[in-house]
Amino acid sequence: MKNITLIAAMDTNGLIGKNNRLPWHLPVDLNFFKQQTLGKTILMGRKTCESLPFPLPNRRNIVLSRNKVFSKPGFDIINNIDNKILDDEVMVIGGSTLYELLMPQASHMILTRIDHEFEGDTYFPNVDWELWQNTRTTRLPISDQNPEYNIAFEFYQRIEQTT
């Protein structure tokens, strides 16, 4: 199985978006996201792609879209998940439909938890936590470098199922 990692930031209610944008601007989380995804293949849905002004640098940007005529310079557009197209490691960066589609195949999740309730319209899909083990959590309290909210960076690995 390929190494598929879902990476997302969410508030205390699982909110991940508002009007096709992040409901917050947190440089510490953006830097964390960059560290985790640099040099890797990132996979996103069309709406997430449309929210970006340009491809994220130093990453292979792949967009999964049912729209067969959609194109955007610098992005590789695919209409279905073809294992030959995807590298050994793929970071799924959103949106919610793609997270839900690939959750059953994902081997890892990296979740930024923001200790605040925001308003928005898009949520991370429900997770069956019995299938996931937290392997590491880094807590970042409010400080000069993180002046707004308490944040936790959580790493999860799918629990191997034995039959």
Automatic annotation (TrEMBL):
GO cellular component: cytosol
GO annotation terms (biological process): dihydrofolate metabolic process; folic acid metabolic process; one-carbon metabolic process; tetrahydrofolate biosynthetic process
Keyword Ribonucleoprotein: no
Reaction equations catalysed: (6S)-5,6,7,8-tetrahydrofolate + NADP(+) = 7,8-dihydrofolate + NADPH + H(+)
Residue ranges annotated for the DHFR domain, each copy included: 3-158
InterPro entries: DHFR (IPR012259), DHFR-like_dom_sf (IPR024072), DHFR_CS (IPR017925), DHFR_dom (IPR001796)
UniProt-listed Enzyme Commission number(s): 1.5.1.3
Signal peptide: none
Keywords, comma-separated and alphabetical: NADP, One-carbon metabolism, Oxidoreductase
Coiled coil: none
Metabolic or biological pathway, per its Swiss-Prot or TrEMBL entry: Cofactor biosynthesis; tetrahydrofolate biosynthesis; 5,6,7,8-tetrahydrofolate from 7,8-dihydrofolate: step 1/1
Domain of life, per lineage: Bacteria
GO MF term (any one): dihydrofolate reductase activity
Enzyme class at the top of the EC tree: oxidoreductase
UniProt function note: Key enzyme in folate metabolism. Catalyzes an essential reaction for de novo glycine and purine synthesis, and for DNA precursor synthesis.
Similarity-based family: Belongs to the dihydrofolate reductase family.
Name under which the protein is recorded: Dihydrofolate reductase
